[in-house]
Amino acid sequence: MNAKLGAKGLLANPKTGKELPMPDIVITDPARFGMAESLISILRTIGAKRIVYVSCNPATQARDMVLLTAQSQGPNDARYALASCTPVDMFPHTSHVESVAVFDRL
Fold this sequence. Notes:
The relative contact order is 0.19. The chain contains two helices and four strands, in the order E-H-E-H-E-E. It is globular, with a radius of gyration of 15 Å. By secondary structure, the chain is α+β, with helices and mostly antiparallel strands.
């Protein structure tokens, strides 16, 4: 598999202001409070084929899953299906767990 990796802003290059090409895959790892609804709306508008969502708070990830998988509101509003969700115990003997969810565009 070939991949071109990079960290970029979602909509425009901050140096040139030019619109960036739309990604095939988005990887997001938000803070404990999860993603803002406005960011989820932008992700749905971008319509990447796949979203990989890494979370340190399964409760806020579950909240965001509902928004990502909700019925589309129009032609430029992609809907996603949860393909997999895997807990990762990086901190044994604690209550903390990471969760990796993969969403595919419908």
